């Protein structure tokens, strides 16, 4: 995707306006559950909480701790499929 912030904002706006963003999010949720990502992340969260102690972990701490691993664990096939769907959407709805 483009690194230009205005371009990203425009694409995001178009995806949102046409309901495609929500459809892509649903697809992503389904794919991540299907490939076991959700279970891996749940297990990782439990590890972090066990390691640090429940009393010493905030939601913000947990998000900071698990985000890099979460991003790394998303299969390339899922990333490629989403990117392809975004490209197809943009090609169909180019103004």
Biggest sheet features: none
Q: What do the pLDDT scores average to? A: 92
Total of helices = 5
- The number of E-state strands comes to 0
Shape: elongated
Q: Report the sheet-strand fraction.
A: under 5%
Structural class by secondary-structure content: mainly alpha
Order of helices and strands: HHHHH
Tell me the distance between the termini. 18 Å
What fraction, in percent, of the residue positions are helical? over 70%
Roughly how many Å is the radius of gyration?
A: 17 Å
Unreliable parts? none
Short description:
Helix content is 80%, strand content 0%. With 95 residues, it is an all-alpha fold. α2 (20-34) packs antiparallel against α5 and α3 runs antiparallel to α4 (59-73).
Provide the fold topology:
Blueprint lengths: L4 H13 L2 H15 L2 H16 L6 H15 L2 H17 L3
Descriptive report:
The chain is 80% helix and 0% strand. It has 5 helices and no strands.
Characteristics:
mainly alpha, elongated
């Amino acid at each position: 995707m483009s690194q230009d912030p205005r371009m990203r904002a425009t694409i995001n706006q178009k995806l949102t306006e046409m309901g495609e963003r929500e459809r892509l999010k649903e697809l992503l949720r389904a794919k991540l559950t299907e490939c076991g990502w959700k279970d891996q992340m749940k297990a990782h969260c439990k590890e972090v909480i066990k390691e640090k102690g429940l009393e010493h972990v905030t939601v913000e701490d947990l998000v900071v701790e698990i985000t890099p691993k979460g991003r790394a664990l998303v299969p390339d096939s899922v990333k490629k499929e989403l990117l392809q769907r975004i490209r197809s959407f943009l090609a169909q709805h180019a103004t």
